Known about the structure:
Blueprint: E1 14-15, E2 18-19, H1 33-40, H2 44-54, E3 64-69, H3 74-81, H4 85-99, E4 103-106, H5 108-127, E5 138-139, H6 144-154, H7 168-183, E6 191-197, H8 201-206, E7 212-213, E8 218-219, E9 223-226, H9 227-236, H10 272-285, E10 295-299, E11 302-309, E12 312-321, H11 323-334, E13 342-346, H12 369-380, H13 391-399, H14 407-413
Helix pairs in contact: 3-4, 3-12, 5-7, 5-10
Amino acid sequence: TATGVCVLRRDTVHEGSQLLLSACLSCDGCLSEEESLKISQQSLEEVERVLALNKKCDVSKHKVLVASICPQSLPFFAVKFGLDITEAAHKLCGFLKTLGVQFVFDTTLAAGFSILESQREFIQRYRRRHHDSHALPMFTSSCPGWIRYSERVLGSLVTPHICTARSPQQVMGCLVKKYFSKQQKLSPEKVYHVLVAPCFDKKLEAVREEFYNSLLETRDVDCVLTSGEIYCLMEQRKVSVEELDSVPLDHVLGEAGDVALVRHEGRGSEGFLEHVFKHAAKELFGLDVHEITYKHLRNRDFQEVTLERDGETLLQFAAVYGFRNIQTLVHRMRKGRVPYQLVEVLSCPGGCLSGRGQAESEAGGKVDKVLIQQMEEAYSSLPIRLPEVNPALHTLYQEWLQGQDSQQASTLLHTQYRNQSHTQPPHMQW
Ligand code: SF4
């Protein structure tokens, strides 16, 4: 595209003019002119413009800068800085604060909301599966590459099956603009919210119209920068990591919040499958699942998990990563042969640590496998904490959302999907 942003740059292969099976299905006219313009504002230059305005005398144009870092970005900085993940997070926070960012958060808290809401929605869908043909399978909703592909290419075959829980990024946007800004006695448009993420696709998600407040002319997430873009900026400015201050991250609950870094289950993508699986086993069948055993089907990125009792299969979930595997899944869906109640779908092979905003080799084009392995090791060094036992989530459900079943929780933590008619690219080989 004109902006160089392609949502499906992962296992795309072009041979002559033919688009192969593994190729991106929505490349053809992927971005409208309007979207291109919005995406062009998701850049370092835009952040620098906002920072420059803060130095001018006209205080009416000043904004409070807030940065939220995805936990999938932190292992990248840990490897690049040669530090453990917590120390790397503190150095990154120190760097962002030297730029003029006032608050730096970690999005794990927001991911906790996404997980809890996905768990609740799964139980509701499971219970209405006999009278709602769209209830199951439920597809996870955290990956904007997958969402875009579903909306533009697959349409009604898939969109009613996508979990309506907002992604961690967009829950974080909501937390910053609708909770934190209020605590700071600031109008949402006075806060400029930057999100540091592992992939470019998050930029497309940030500019979706449902996350834009047209009255105040502000977005929940104003700008997404990839880990690689931040690292490039550090290199351009010849920043020495040793000389950076180590600054602990902030918490949206202020002093009351625990800023110790934790992670969710799974291989680095918040583990929606594992969380929902364990929750559903307990909630629906009264079974405690401590360990999850994956069965590799086609490859490491197409795996299955089952819950059995007395020879009967109670639950059957799958993790499907990368467009090759997604196309297999869609093919089975068209034939009505998807046995799963839930599928965790991610468009990057390997999941979010392999996002192209951080995992591409310096030569470009391919993923850096050594870097990914190092990132996986760094990520797995963090302790796991279940969102169910995170006191900050309980506080926010009560104080901000008026409880888990409230209208407020449903409005602010969920979204919807559109079917956007779009022709499939020519020469597509299924
Ligand atoms: S799977 Fe890839 S495209 Fe999807 S959210 Fe993760 S990093 Fe981004």
